[in-house]
Write a structure and sequence with these properties.
The chain has 360 residues and is α/β, with parallel strands linked by helices. Helices cover 29% and strands 16% of the residues.
C-alpha cells in the first residue's frame, strides 16, 4: 500500500538518490580541522603590492606600464595564518566580545582582512561583509539593520568612519558598536577621535598583545546551539530592486556550499587569483573555499588587468575568479577560468585545459 502523503507534501519531488551527508559540526571546526592538516609552510595568502595606485573595483583597462616588485609582496603561510586567526579571536575576546555579537567587515581586500574573517569565525561569532564602496549612509543602515556589535574596517575607510561617528544623522547607530578594529595600520589612530565606542584598536596592536598565545582552548570558542539555525553569515542584497534585504546563512547551509563546490582537486597545492571584493558574498565564499581546499591565494585589491596578468605569469596561476568583462582579453596563461555563478560556463571551452605545475 502506497504511503499516505500529508497535504503539504504532495507537491514535493524527492530525488531517488540518497541525500548528501554533511558532518554535524560548525564551519569553524571543520575549516580548522582542514587547515591543521595542511603543510604549515604552504602559502595561504600572497598579497601583491604594485608601484602604481588604482581605484578600487575599476574595470577600465589602463594602458599605463605596470611595474611589479617581488620584494613588495607579503606571504602568509598556513601555519602563521592559523595562528594569527586565533590571536585575533583572543583579542576580540579580551576586548569584551560575547557570544552572538555580530562582526561587520568594511574594508578593501587584504591579508589582514582574511585573518580577521577567520578569527571571528574561530571565535564562533556571526560575520557580515559589507561592500567597500559604501558611504556613511549605507554603512550605518547595514550596521543598524544587522545589529552589528563589532566593526572591522580598513585604514582607507577612516574618513567614512569618522563622519559616521561625528554626524548626528549616523552617530546614534555607530554608538551601538562596542569594538572597532582598524586594519593596515601600526597605531590606534582613532582611539582619541571616537569617544562613543568602548574599544578602538588597530589589528597590529591587537595581535601584538597575544604574540605568546597561538591557540584557543576550542574552535569555535563559542559553540553554536543549533547548527541549522545558528547564524554563520549575514549578507545583504544589492538593493537594485528596492531596499537591500538581509539573507542569513546558517553554519549548516554555508558548510554545505563549501563541500558541494568543486574547484580542481581538493588539497592540491594550486594557486588561485582572487580580486573579487571580500565585502561581497561571492568573494567571501571563494576565500573560505580556497582556504578550506588548501589553495594558495594571490590576493589583489582591484581588477586592474595588467596587474592580474602580471600575477598569472609570476605565480603560474591556475584559477581566477572572474567576470565577463575579461572575456574579450587573451588570458591563455590561465589553464582554467572559474566564473561567478551568474555567468555562463560556455566560455570555459576556449581556454587551454592542460595541467600546469606551480610553486612560489
Amino acid at each position: 500500500m502506497a504511503p499516505q502523503l500529508k497535504t503539504e507534501e504532495k507537491n514535493i519531488i524527492c530525488s531517488a538518490k540518497p541525500g548528501y551527508q554533511y558532518p554535524n559540526i560548525s564551519v569553524a571546526e571543520y575549516i580548522a580541522n582542514q587547515v591543521t592538516q595542511i603543510d604549515g609552510s604552504v602559502p595561504a595568502i600572497v598579497r601583491q603590492f604594485f608601484r602604481q595606485k588604482y581605484k578600487q573595483l575599476s574595470l577600465n583597462i589602463s594602458r599605463k606600464p605596470l611595474q611589479v616588485n617581488p620584494s613588495d609582496d607579503t606571504l602568509l603561510t598556513y601555519e602563521d595564518f592559523h595562528k594569527q586567526a586565533q590571536q585575533f579571536a583572543s583579542a576580540l575576546l579580551s576586548f569584551g566580545a560575547v557570544q552572538g555579537n555580530l562582526v561587520v567587515f568594511f574594508a578593501e581586500n587584504s591579508a589582514q582582512l582574511v585573518v580577521a574573517f577567520f578569527g571571528a569565525v574561530y571565535l564562533g561569532l556571526p560575520i557580515c561583509p559589507l561592500p567597500p564602496s559604501n558611504g556613511p549612509y549605507e554603512l550605518t543602515n547595514y550596521i543598524r539593520d544587522a545589529s552589528g556589535a563589532i566593526l572591522v574596517f580598513g585604514s582607507d575607510k577612516r574618513e567614512t568612519i569618522l563622519k559616521a561617528c561625528n554626524d548626528p544623522k549616523y552617530s546614534k547607530t555607530m554608538a551601538q558598536l562596542k569594538i572597532l578594529i582598524q586594519l593596515e595600520t601600526e597605531e590606534d589612530l582613532l582611539e582619541h577621535e571616537i569617544l562613543s565606542v568602548a574599544v578602538v584598536k588597530s589589528f597590529t596592536s591587537a595581535l601584538n598583545n597575544f604574540k605568546t598565545t597561538s591557540t584557543l582552548p576550542s574552535i569555535p570558542y563559542f559553540t553554536p546551539v543549533d547548527l541549522k539555525k545558528s547564524h554563520f553569515c549575514l549578507c545583504f542584497t544589492s538593493g537594485t530592486t528596492g531596499s537591500p534585504k538581509a539573507a542569513v546563512h546558517s553554519n549548516r547551509s554555508f558548510l554545505a556550499m563549501l563541500m558541494k563546490t568543486q574547484m580542481g582537486e581538493k588539497d592540491k597545492r594550486e594557486h588561485v587569483l582572487q580580486w573579487h571584493p571580500l565585502g561581497h558574498m561571492s568573494g567571501l565564499f571563494m576565500i573560505f573555499h580556497c582556504i578550506y581546499s588548501g589553495k594558495s591565494v594571490v590576493l589583489h585589491r582591484s581588477g586592474h588587468l595588467e596587474s592580474l596578468l602580471a600575477s598569472v605569469e609570476k605565480y603560474k596561476l591556475v584559477y581566477m575568479v572572474s567576470f565577463k568583462t575579461f572575456l574579450k582579453h587573451s588570458l591563455t596563461k590561465l589553464c582554467f577560468l572559474f566564473f561567478s555563478p551568474s555567468l555562463p560556463a560556455t566560455p570555459l571551452k576556449c581556454w587551454p585545459k592542460t595541467t600546469r605545475s606551480s610553486s612560489i
